[in-house]
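pasting for ref
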Amino acid sequence: MGFGGTVIALALLAIASSPAIPKEVQPPIPALQSYWLVLHVTLSFIGESFFIVSFVAAILYLSTRDEERRRNLDG
């Protein structure tokens, strides 16, 4: 799992530094110039990360055959 994460991170870094992506940064349109946008994006990211953590925990629980470890995962 660590190797896959490393490969994905390297691929995203390569895409982000690609010369095909324009380098000039433009300010957002006036309708998006609000602190609510930053708050919304931050809370959405945190919410999505909770879903990912719970999904991984559920997969680990379902794939475990050892009863002792399953009790430990159950909390």
